[in-house]
Every structure is written in C-alpha cells, then in structure tokens.
Amino acid sequence: MLAAYANSIDPQDPLGGLVIGERPDPVAPEGWTTVAVRAASLNHHDVFSLRGIGLGEEHLPMILGTDAAGVDEQGNEVIVYSVITEPGWLADPTHDPKRSLLSERHQGTFAERVTVPRPNLLPKPPELSFEEAACLPTAWLTAYRMLFTRARVTPGMTVLVQGATGGVATALTVLASAAGIRVWVTSRSESKRARALELGASASFEPGARLPERVDAVMETIGEATWGHSLRALKPGGTLVVSGATTGDAPPAELRRVFFLALSILGSSMGTRDELQRLARFCVDKGVRPVIDRTLPLAGARDGFQAMLDGDVCGKIVFTPDI
Ligand SMILES: NC(=O)c1ccc[n+]([C@@H]2O[C@H](COP(=O)([O-])OP(=O)(O)OC[C@H]3O[C@@H](n4cnc5c(N)ncnc54)[C@H](OP(=O)(O)O)[C@@H]3O)[C@@H](O)[C@H]2O)c1
Fold first, then answer.
1. What is the percentage of the chain residues whose pLDDT exceeds 90?
2. What is the per-residue pLDDT for 323?
3. For residue 244, what is the enclosing H or E element?
4. Nearest-angstrom CA–CA distance, 271 and 143
5. Which of 44, 65, 160, 231 is most buried by its number of CB atoms within 10 A?
6. CA–CA gap between residue 160 and residue 175 (Å, rounded)
7. In CATH, what number does 2-135+290-320 get?
8. What atom of ligand 1 comes closest to residue 43's alpha carbon?
9. pLDDT tens digits for 61-82?
10. What's the CATH architecture for 139-267?
C-alpha cells in the first residue's frame, strides 16, 4: 500500500529521510482492527519524528501520522484515537508513562490502511467530513484539553494564544471563541495576525508586545521564543498551559515571578478518548469546523511537510490516500 514513512532520521534535514512509497499491508494483532484511511492530517509531531524526536532508529522504517478518519472493517465511519497505552492501563491514557502515539512504536496513519486497538475507534459524526474529522485527534484534542480540562477557562475570561496559524493555535482560537472566551493571539506575520481575527480572535499582537491588560490564561506551544512573554502576560494567580516547545525547551524559568504572582504552570499532552468524543460533539453542536489550509493526495505529502517546515500554513494540512 502507499504510505509516507520515515526511512532514516536526520535532525538537520528532516525531509531527507521521508519516503513516499510502498509499505506492506498492516496485520492487526489480537484485539486490534484495521481502518481504511480516508483522510489523515499532518502535525508538527511528524516533522519532529523525522528529526529523531520521539522516534528511535530501531523503529524504522516507520509510517508517519497520528491522526486519521476512515472506515472500519464493519463499514462504520470512524475517527482514530491515537494514544496507545500499555495493555491493562485503565487510568487517564495521557498519564501512562509508557504510552505512545501512532507512528512512535506502531505504524502511523499516512497510509491506505492502519491498525489500532479496537477501543481506539470512535464513531465519526456524519456532520463532519473525513478531512475535518482527521484534524481532531491530535492538534484539536490537545487544544480542547488545554483550554477546558487544564486551564478550565470560562466565558468572559481572556486567553492569550501564542502563535496564530499553527494547527494547535488555530484550534485554540476557534474553540475558545466558540465557547465565549475572549481570545488574543500573537504572530510574527501581519497577514497571519489578520487571519487570526477572521478565525475569531478579538485582537492580535506582535510577539512580545505589551498587552492592553494581563490575561487569565496563556496557551503555549512555541516554547523558548515566547515563554518570557507568556509569564509576563499573566494576571496574578493566572494559568499557563504548555503542550509544546517548537523553539526549544530551556528558557529562563523566572521562578521569582512564578511564586510571587502565584502563577500556575500546567503541562498538557493530547487528551482522553472521552475528551475526543466531547470535542467532536462540540464541533457538531456549535457548527465549529477545523481550519484546513489544504488537502493533498498522499502521493504529494512531501509538499505538505515542506510547507510546515517553511511555516507557510494556516491550520491543518490533510492527506487523502485515494485521490
Ligand atoms: N503535547 C501534545 O500532545 C502536543 C500535541 C500537538 C502539538 N504539540 C506541539 O505543539 C507545537 C505546535 O504544533 P502544531 O502541529 O500546531 O505545529 P505548527 O502547525 O507547525 O505550528 C506553527 C505555529 O508555531 C508558531 N511559531 C512561533 N514562533 C515560531 C518559531 N520561531 N518557529 C516555528 N514556529 C513558530 C507559529 O506562529 P506564527 O503565527 O508566528 O507563524 C505557528 O502558529 C509543536 O511543538 C508540537 O509538537 C504537542
């Protein structure tokens, strides 16, 4: 079957190890099932995998992709939940220290077929297209949990989203504004700041800008480049939720600011299957849809990876195997 996979790892030249080519059909182990992929979406995770972050040489060749929507063996339209826990793990999957995402230890979703544990399938709401549903399991689920489970923001609060047009950043903006929260965003580009306003942000700012007032919560995925601004943007008692560190993970901690202003810094990673189900329902009920930058045939996946590396994306890039 056709797949986009990591054949080698190179931290400096991630696309050097990307191959679009034939891989053997997956065989479902006991308790797993096979999904015919109709759409899969690209995440920065896939670029990190090609750089060797979260993916070891011993697992190569590895089909990339953590998100998918497709059709199961019984003909049902499904969304694939990507967190794979150790057998017997019953608590929150994101708390399992031995968990992995599809494409880390098990073959991923950028293929015509993918195998997953049966409980990792959710019904796809008919109101969402395969392309829209394929955006939910990683970036959108992460944004949903950051806002509603971790920061517990409520209508009328103000949230700062660092970055305007990334997969997680657009999800944060759309979900929070649909929930009645005032959203402010930062971006390096004027056109991306304008796009964020179209997506529901109330205001947008240059990175590091002085804000009109301090905010209740900050959503951080960029890391080192924006960390100091994130801390300075918070009200006393405010909450910073971090789920990514694209630009590095060792900024000054600014401990005096953290303790004197009683700031809460919370980590967040993916979400639970129940949260994914609630997210899908929220999208249907509120008429909210994932922001899709472009849909490409799987055979042209390299162009999508290049666009993400170039930062030339607003929202999600989706691959479809059957075009
Ligand atoms: N923990 C989890 O479960 C989880 C889940 C999903 C994602 N993540 C992490 O979250 C991060 C974002 O993921 P994504 O899929 O949304 O990636 P993406 O689409 O590539 O995100 C791009 C975003 O990063 C911003 N950015 C700002 N400064 C940057 C810089 N110097 N270099 C590169 N980008 C910069 C961009 O802002 P501008 O508007 O300024 O361009 C843009 O909004 C990644 O680190 C990813 O690994 C973690």
1. 99
2. 52
3. none
4. 9
5. 65
6. 13
7. 3.90.180.10
8. 15
9. 999 999 999 999 999 999 999 9
10. 3-Layer(aba) Sandwich (3.40)
